[in-house]
Specification:
The complex is a heterotrimer of chains A (352), B (270) and C (297). Chain A contains 8 helices and 20 strands. By secondary structure, chain A is an alpha+beta fold. The two termini of chain A are 22 Å apart. Chain B is 77% helix and 0% strand. By secondary structure, chain B is mainly alpha-helical. Chain C is built from 13 helices and 2 strands, in the order ααββααααααααααα. In chain C, a hairpin with a 4-residue loop joins strand 1 and strand 2. The N terminus of chain C is likely disordered. The chains are: A alpha+beta (352), B mainly alpha (270), C mainly alpha (297). The interface between B and C is large, with 86 and 79 residues.
């Protein structure tokens, strides 16, 4: 699909195949086009080029009110002039369902979201979390083929947000509807999704499970957008069947094979901070299998609760981050000379 | 609040109080004068009389004027609110070429001086037979109210945003159902205010009505205007006092609504 | 996939008739009533007046009459003078009033202040003009008070002259002056004033260097609005001028009543041109200054 607003290419060739009953997330920074993709699926925007199929039917120009999708809006858009019951019954009434059936369905859905007895509340009397659940109920009661969620948890505080993430996942399990979730928050995406599409500048950079995109990022953008990473600019020196030998300055590094770069190509080696093991002093032996070794100096030590973060400056002046479990063992002091070591398969070679 | 007690602020407030007195003075003294036994409204009062109030009922122009004014104001309000709301919806919700030009064009009725519009309308109406008719008055007054309705309603629609309307469509409401079930109920406060504006605009209208009403079949302001030019006894003070009374009631109602809304907002925030 | 053909064009076609459908009625209404009426007025301005009736003969004699008879120059001069004096007084009074309102902290007092300043708008200009007549007339309140205090021996003429019209016109227009100033003052971020104070500005310096320049657009809008409304005033000069304060709106009505429609039309056109040209020139003069403030905000 492709979407242009005047001169602006909001979405430049996005191709997605979303499976039935899947919790699928579109993850990316603001302005990456993820909301536009969502609005094309819900029918508020028409793709400039390309085709959108919903359950095998071409749906490019079907207006939103004749589409089997429902959207949870960023600010929820619960009608302030209606009470909870009327909000939830809105869609069913438009389909002219019998009164008793509507009442029964509303009761059932309120049970599902754990808000039985709230029928006659006004919207402004609800807490943030309750509003979320009413919005979900209002959409799900129509039994849409796809439920679309446009960062609906953004306004909640951290604790409530984490609680709602778990709840959403549970609701999705119970009803089995396909969920498409838009967010810029990588933990949110990873907590809930079966698969994630990482978007940037209107293009999908990578699709995969949360673990996939985190551990095997395909591009530099994906590596930096999801969590912290150490990116080391290097050149391919030797391609072997099992591994790649890289050269970064005067360092010889080994990384796994399985990438498209040929000998002599400039690549980026990505290593997650929690994969680094620091040894001190700098010439102390590394644990078995930790073949890669970069001498560095500890620049700062930050205690982060579950782990300790070390900010390092390498011999060539580059910065690195290492994380170690805070398991009670004494931290390495500031200004200590250390070596950052890691195993061959902890690194990922990025060519884009 | 020690900062607000300094002499400059106190002087400002004293000035505000004086200006307030100046604003209220004519209304207060009209009311006092309505009980004045002197035909020429001279001060001080030598007694108190209700004679002028009885006289109001005796002037037939006031009675027909009142009826005409109510009908015309109601009609003008309906026309202005319907046309203005439709136009506001178009301006606030759709993008099209020359939208700013259309917006300015719709504000034209307030850019043209009312007295010029009145004269022009007279020249038009005597040609098409609308001179001296209620229809003519309704059309003229509605035109004057239209820009207010449009401006207020456009603002309400823009504050409302599109999300509620999109939510309704997403839930299966077609654009027409969305407009009546979601848009209109959501902007009701703005609609009420704009209707009030349109009504008051018509109710107090003088400059345009002057040209297009027939003698003996006037609106109330024109009947009063003519009476003031011809007689100048406190009968006019009496009817003015009645109208001031209406205005006071209106203000009190508005204040109480405002206060409950403020109150509601406070409760909501808790 | 034959659904493509009938589904694709739907959205654009809906737009194509929806926008004219929504805006059409209002546009047609304005064209049909306002523009047509103004067109007829324009045509009438060129016609010939025999002294008793209008003849549809294009002579432009009303224009010649209007621009050659010094009487009309005097009327225009008096009208501009009235509008300028009224606007000046309204600004001098209105600015401190608006500023004082922003300094009130108790919500009830704010409401009271709004009622004081804006509630006269709810009463007709006729009622208010009559009120001033009661206060300022020969046997009215002010003269009675002056005589009681032995400040004057015989009643002073306060009404049916320029002074009376000005006093009443300021009263009618002051709410329109206060409103734009007040809304700009309320919109100004209070932290800007606090920032100035924090940087060491005294209250006077804060006012002169922050509050005043930022409120200039409101002041400008207030001046324009007040001036235009003063130029258009009919009821107040008619009822309180006693025939001694001649302005174009009075002449327009008079000439329409006397059946001299060409002259009334010319006067109407002159009034519009006078107002629009004042707007145009003042916008040219102040454009730079307003744009600069717009950038700063």
């Amino acid at each position: 699909m492709h979407k242009r607003f005047g001169q602006v290419h909001a979405v430049r060739g996005v191709s997605l195949r979303i499976r039935e009953n899947e919790f699928f997330s579109l993850l990316g920074p603001s302005g990456c086009g993820k909301t536009t993709v969502l609005r094309m699926i819900s029918g508020f925007e028409v793709p400039t080029e390309g085709s959108l199929y919903l359950q095998g039917r071409l749906a490019n120009a079907i207006p939103p009110y004749r589409r089997d999708t429902n959207l949870i809006f960023q600010h929820l858009a619960l009608f302030p002039h209606l009470d909870v019951y009327d909000n939830i019954a809105f869609g069913l009434r438009l389909r002219r369902l019998p009164r008793e059936e509507i009442a029964r369905k509303v009761r059932a859905i309120l049970d599902l979201v754990d808000l039985a007895g709230y029928e006659s509340r006004r919207i402004h009397q609800l807490s943030g979390g309750q509003k979320q659940r009413i919005a979900i109920a209002r959409a799900l009661i129509n039994q849409p083929a796809v439920l679309l969620l446009d960062e609906p948890l953004g306004a909640l505080d951290l604790r409530l947000r984490m609680q709602m993430q778990v709840e959403l996942k549970e609701i999705q399990h119970r009803v089995g509807t396909t969920f498409i979730y838009v967010t810029h928050d990588q933990t949110e995406a990873m907590t809930m999704s079966d698969r994630i599409a990482v978007m940037n500048h209107g293009v999908v950079e990578q699709i995969g499970t949360g673990r996939d995109v985190y551990e095997r990022p395909r591009t530099r953008f994906v590596a930096t957008f999801l969590g912290d990473s150490n990116l080391i600019e290097a050149r391919v020196e030797l391609l072997e069947s099992e591994q790649t030998v890289l050269r970064a300055g005067d360092q010889r590094l080994v990384a796994p094979a399985g990438h498209a770069a040929g000998p002599g190509a400039a690549v980026t080696l990505c290593v997650r901070p929690e994969r680094l093991r620091l040894v001190t002093p700098a010439d102390a032996p590394a644990p078995a299998g930790y073949q890669n070794r970069v001498p560095a100096r500890v620049h700062d030590v930050i205690f982060k609760g579950a782990f300790i973060e070390y900010r390092l400056t390498t011999g060539s002046g580059a910065s690195m981050i290492a994380q170690a479990h805070a398991n009670g063992s004494p931290a390495i002091g500031r200004d200590a000379a250390v070596a950052a070591t890691w195993r061959r398969d902890d690194g990922v070679v990025l060519t884009e | 609040m020690s900062a607000s007690r300094d002499p400059i602020t106190i002087a400002l407030w004293a000035f505000l109080g004086l200006v307030g007195l100046y604003m209220l003075a004519p209304l207060i003294f009209v009311t006092i004068d309505s009980f004045n036994p002197s035909t020429y409204g001279t001060f001080p009062l030598t007694g108190v009389t209700l004679h002028w109030y009885q006289n109001v009922l005796q002037v037939p122009e006031f009675r027909t004027g009142l009826v005409n004014s109510l009908i015309v104001a109601a009609g003008a309000t309906v026309v202005a609110v319907v046309l203005g709301t439709l136009a506001a919806y178009g301006l606030a919700r759709y993008r099209f070429r020359q939208r700013e030009l259309v917006r300015s064009f719709l504000l034209l009725p307030i850019i043209v001086p009312a007295i010029v519009f009145g004269a022009a309308l007279f020249l038009l109406y005597i040609r098409v037979g609308l001179y001296g008719t209620r229809t003519g008055l309704v059309l003229g007054h509605a035109l004057l109210g239209l820009p207010f309705v449009m401006a207020i309603t456009t603002a309400s629609l823009q504050t409302l945003g599109r999300e509620y309307e999109e939510a309704a469509m997403d839930l299966g409401a077609n654009p027409l159902v969305t407009f009546f079930k979601v848009t209109i109920p959501s902007i009701r406060p703005g609609l009420v205010v704009s209707a009030l504006f349109a009504f008051v605009t018509s109710w107090d209208q003088v400059e345009v009505s002057l040209f297009i009403t027939r003698p003996r079949n006037n609106t109330l302001p024109i009947a009063m205007f003519n009476y003031e030019q011809n007689y100048q006894d406190p009968t006019l003070a009496a009817i003015s006092a009645i109208l001031i009374g209406f205005a006071v009631v209106l203000v009190l109602v508005a204040v109480s609504i405002l206060k409950t809304q403020e109150y509601r907002k406070l409760v909501e925030r808790e | 996939m034959n659904a493509t053909a009938d589904l694709r064009p739907r959205a654009p076609r809906a737009q194509a008739f929806v926008v004219p459908g929504l805006l059409g009625p209002a546009v047609v209404f304005i064209v049909g009533v306002l523009l047509t009426a103004l067109g007829i007025l324009l045509v009438n301005s060129a016609y010939h007046f025999t002294g008793t009736q209008v003849q549809p003969r294009v002579t432009f004699e009303a224009y010649r009459h209007f621009f050659t008879d010094p009487f009309y120059a005097r009327v225009v001069w008096q009208e501009v003078r009235l509008a300028v004096v009224t606007t000046g007084i309204c600004l001098l009074v209105g600015y401190p009033v608006a500023y004082a309102i922003t300094k009130i902290r108790r919500p009830n007092w704010v409401i009271a202040a709004y009622i004081l300043i804006f509630s006269p708008l709810l009463t007709s200009s006729i009622v208010r003009a009559y009120g001033w007549l009661v206060i300022l007339a020969r046997g009215g309140l002010v003269n009675w008070a002056l005589e009681r205090a032995h400040l004057v021996a015989s009643p002073v003429r306060l009404v049916f002259n320029f002074t009376g019209v000005t006093v009443a016109l300021v009263h009618v227009l002051l709410p329109f002056t206060v409103f734009p100033i007040l809304s700009v003052l309320l919109r100004t971020d209070p932290s800007l004033r606090e920032a100035a104070a924090d940087l060491g500005a005294t209250r006077l310096q804060t006012f002169v260097r922050v509050t005043w320049p930022l409120s200039f657009p409101g002041l400008y809008a207030a001046a324009q609005l007040t001036f235009v409304l003063a130029m258009n005033a009919y009821v107040t000069p008619q009822l309180l001028g006693g025939g001694r304060v001649q302005v174009l709106p009075l002449l327009i009505f008079e000439n329409i009543s006397d059946l001299n429609w060409p002259l009334a039309s010319v006067e109407a056109i002159a009034l519009i041109m006078l107002i629009w040209m004042t707007m145009f020139v003042s916008n040219l003069l102040f454009r730079r200054r307003l744009a600069a403030i717009g950038d700063r905000e």
